[in-house]
């Protein structure tokens, strides 16, 4: 009998757009946390960001994530929150994953800024009992470990890259270079669809 559970990580985000910080964090979290696979889950409607700025259509954000991880072992773009529609809550994604395959163990991967906000997440107490948590460092972000007492948490050190999607959007609006922060394909896609003007 094979009682080794498959460890599936979920790394959720708006990914507007995906950048090198996400990708370096993802490959290293996957390796350090020994995940069979890490899903980059593109949020459909990021409820905590709604109303504060224009968000690129989910299908476009997903296409860019899919392209970015193509050929990268162990990383996969997931559109399950887009397929589900409505507001994106991580707990629903975890339930959907474990419901489809009870032999899965779900590991939630977040950057330190997201980790510091976990207590605001939908049904976070239930969520904390359903997943193991992996927190990766992020420049400028700090999470008090004692605030994560209810979680089974591991801290994974990844190369620090001070880049954010906000910075990419601002650079795009200003006409500053995006090279090496995002892929060539992403740069072309942004230009073609006139994103972040
Ligand atoms: P925005 O500026 O629009 O909020 P972002 O760069 O923070 O974009 P998100 O899609 O909000 O990207 O983040 C998705 C996940 O990736 C979060 O868990 C976040 O902490 C993590 N993350 C984003 N950028 C980095 C980075 N440079 N290093 C480590 N983790 C990161
Ligand atoms: Mg963010």
Draw up the topology in text:
Blueprint: E1 6-13, H1 20-32, E2 37-42, H2 58-69, E3 75-78, H3 80-84, H4 90-100, E4 104-111, H5 112-116, H6 124-130, E5 132-136, E6 152-156, H7 165-174, H8 184-192
Parallel strand pairs: 1-2, 1-4, 2-3, 4-5, 5-6
The chain binds adenosine-5'-triphosphate (ATP) and magnesium ion.
What does it look like?
By secondary structure, the chain is of the alpha/beta class. The protein has one domain: HUPs (Rossmann fold, 3-Layer(aba) Sandwich). Helix content is about 35%, strand content about 20%. The chain has a 6-stranded parallel beta sheet, with helices on both faces. Helix 2 (about 60-70) links the parallel strand 2 (about 35-40) and strand 3. The mean pLDDT is about 95. It binds adenosine-5'-triphosphate (ATP) and magnesium ion. Adenosine-5'-triphosphate (ATP) binds near residues 13, 14, 21 and 113. Adenosine-5'-triphosphate binds near residues 114 and 166.
Shape: globular
Instruction: Tally the structural domains.
Output: 1
Poorly predicted ranges (pLDDT <50, ≥5 residues)?
none
Got a strand count? 6
Provide a concise account of the structure shown.
The chain is an alpha/beta fold and 197 residues long. Helix content is 37%, strand content 18%.
Keyword list:
single chain, 197 residues, alpha/beta, Rossmann fold, 8 helices, binds magnesium ion
């Amino acid at each position: 009998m094979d009682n080794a559970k498959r460890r599936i990580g979920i790394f959720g985000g708006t990914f507007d757009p995906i950048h090198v910080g996400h990708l370096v964090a993802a490959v290293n979290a996957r390796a350090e946390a020994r995940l069979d696979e890490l899903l980059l889950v593109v949020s459909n409607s990021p409820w905590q960001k709604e109303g504060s700025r224009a968000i690129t259509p989910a299908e476009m954000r997903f296409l860019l994530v899919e392209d970015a991880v193509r050929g990268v072992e162990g990383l996969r773009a997931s559109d399950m929150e887009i397929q589900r529609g409505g507001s994106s809550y991580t707990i629903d994604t975890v339930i959907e994953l474990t419901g489809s395959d009870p032999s899965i163990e779900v590991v939630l991967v977040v950057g330190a800024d997201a980790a510091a906000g976990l207590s605001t997440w939908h049904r976070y107490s239930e969520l904390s009992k359903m997943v193991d948590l992996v927190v990766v460092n992020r420049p400028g972000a700090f999470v008090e470990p004692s605030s994560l007492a209810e979680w089974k948490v591991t801290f994974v050190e990844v190369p620090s890259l001070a880049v954010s999607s906000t910075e990419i959007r601002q650079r795009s609006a200003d006409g500053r270079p995006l090279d090496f922060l995002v892929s060539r394909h992403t740069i072309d896609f942004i230009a073609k669809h006139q994103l972040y003007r």
